Amino acid sequence: MSFSSSIKKELNKNSNLAKKEVVKQELIGYLISANTSIINEKEIKFSTESDYNINRFSKLLDNLNINHKIDMSGKSFIITAKIKDIPSIEIKEKLNEELYRAIIRGAFMGSGSMNNPEKEYHLEIDLRDENNVNKLKQILETLGLKVKTFQKSIYIKEGEEISKFLALIGANQAVMKFEDIRIQKEMRGKVNRLVNCKTANLSKTINASVEQISAIKKLQETGKFQKLDENLKEIAMLRLENPDMPLIELGKLLKNPIGKSGVNYRLKKIMEIADGKI
Fold it and tell me: In the listed set 145, 170, 195, which residue is the last one of a domain according to the structure?
């Protein structure tokens, strides 16, 4: 089951049908969705392939005593009802938060979708016209959500805002599942960044070590190695014996241990001698 379907399944199970005004506003949410059309200004038609969705819409109509019929067309369920029996198909101004939530819930049920959050964060609601897009955007912003619009769609790509949206429409189980996925993704991201950082540091250490060993072997081949100071010979031999060891660890192996900067100074001096700079 897709993440979108699991959200709609959960919302379909939510009762919250005791208050008639809440039911009306959720129905309006459905009616402004892109999956609803008006036929000859006489009928409204809602189509969906989701049985959870069609059940919810039918419950709303039954609750308001609105006659309707359900048909099948291919894989789609289709509900039709007379416009004259519908209390309203417009979003009213200055409603309370409970009613705003109902409109949003209906709009998402009607034509909302959400990608698998394991792959990417993207929640979207497609509406019948841009006027309703603007109205719904204003409602969502009034309730503290940050959303974006494109033509006849409203969408959210930020994880935190999606979580707030799901909580807003009452999909509490979906919130918990989504947050669990978010946490896992963030942890994987931190681990990957840490691994990449360590890999980068290791690459730098190896690259530097290759250059140092090359310089030491050059000195040995030209007979200049024996002319080095004892402290340079000592660090040179340790580097040959421990090609991938960090400088700080090399310093601890010396007869008279020194720090990272001291080791770096000696190895740089060996490379300069090998290059003829000293």
Answer: 170
Q: Which residues pair with 125 in a beta bridge?
A: 112, 154
Residue at 177 is within a domain: no
| CA torsion angle 270 222 224 235 (round to 10) | 40
Q: Is residue 95 helix, strand or coil? A: coil
Q: Do 164 and 192 sit in the same domain of this protein?
A: no
Residue 259 φ/ψ region, left for φ over 0, alpha for ψ in the -120 to 50 degree band, beta for the rest: beta
Partners of 44 in the β-ladder: 38, 81
Q: What is the pLDDT of residues 17-59, one digit of tens each?
A: 788 999 999 999 999 999 988 888 788 898 888 888 888 889 9
Strands 43-48 and 76-82: antiparallel
Question: Domain check: are 48 and 96 in the same one?
Answer: yes
Which tokens is 178 given? 């989504």
Q: Say if residue 94 is in the same domain as residue 199.
A: no
Contact 4, 113 (CB under 8 A): yes
Beta strands in 17-118 (DSSP E): 36-39, 43-48, 69-73, 76-82, 112-114
Secondary structure letter of residue 259 according to DSSP:
-
Tell the burial category of 251 from Cβ atoms under 10 Å away from its Cβ (0-12, 13-18, 19+).
buried
Looking at residue 165, which CATH number applies to its domain?
A: 3.10.28.10
231: CB partners within 8 A, 6+ apart: 266
**What digits encode the pLDDT tens for the residues 124-177?**
999 998 999 999 999 999 999 999 999 999 999 998 999 999 999 998 899 989
43 conformational bin, left if phi > 0, alpha if psi -120 to 50, beta if neither = beta
Give the DSSP letter of residue 68.
-
